Amino acid sequence: MTASLPSHLSPSRSIHVIISTKSGTEGAQQYYDDTLKPILDAHNVKRSVHTTTSTQSIIELTREVFAPHASRGSEQTILLLSGDGGLVDIVDTLHSHVLPREQTDAAGDASVFVKPTIVLFPLGTANAWAWSAGVASDPIKTLLEGKPAPLPSFEARFSPGAKLVTDEGRAREELPLNREGHAAVIHGAVVASWALHASLVALSDTAEYRKHGIQRFKMVAEEKFRISPATKPLEGVIRLVAIRPDGPAEVVRLLGLAYQGGKHVEEPNVVYETVEGVRVELEEDEEVWRQVCIDGKIIAVPKGGWVEVRIDAQTVADLVRISESGS
Description:
The chain is built from nine helices and 17 strands. It is an alpha+beta fold. The strands form four sheets. Strands 2-1-3-4-17-5 form a six-stranded mixed beta sheet, with helices on both faces. A hairpin with a 4-residue loop joins strand 7 and strand 8. The longest helix is centred in the N-terminal third of the chain and has 15 residues.
């Protein structure tokens, strides 16, 4: 049956399956066993299967396998059974370990980086990345009929002292530095937020809430809404959505309009525009109001610190999707 395979499942490529065991309601392994594995077996797709054992598993796999092979020109396809965090880990680590095209590696060889192709099976909680890219509704159809497209990403730079919040808010980890070594960075592709959204994600990022899947957000906020109605899949544009401070009642009213096709962006108290970048300076006393969300990851910024977000000039991965025209 290999003749009917799409190019990203070609036998000439290295195929990897990542099963993120703790994503969402922890259903990735069962999904692989019951749904994906039989399809791959039927098409005789040879693959390496990787099961996560910690929050660092995907980062380590990207650092030790995907990035070195991509830099040597190897063609790779990653079938990612995960939530937003797994995709962030891959993109962020690739950006951190892949040389720009015009540079050379430690051995003096020119970089021949070949972008890995990712097929996303959204098994996280909110799966914002999958919904934004238009691949969430039917991942098997996307696998078999979709085509790779460049995956835009953005770089968030943080002031010194910013830390990644882990272990349900109890621990802090250092952020990786950019190539120049003078700024802490993390890469994302869907949302960079501060205040309302970031605090909701942080407050609900516990095992008790995660076991409820998407319901965790309904427990601390409302249902899914169209926060940026003009956004198109993989367009590589930053759109700023900001609510002017006018009391909690006004915020609730505006959030209600977001469920009506994104009508909140028509309100005078909402700023909605395309921007080249965003910088937020944080002077709040309480840390909860100095937390920034990058595609589900929470970063705590010291008082007086800042975060800057800009589109990455270089894409480091392709994402398989079915275009709106179906081609």
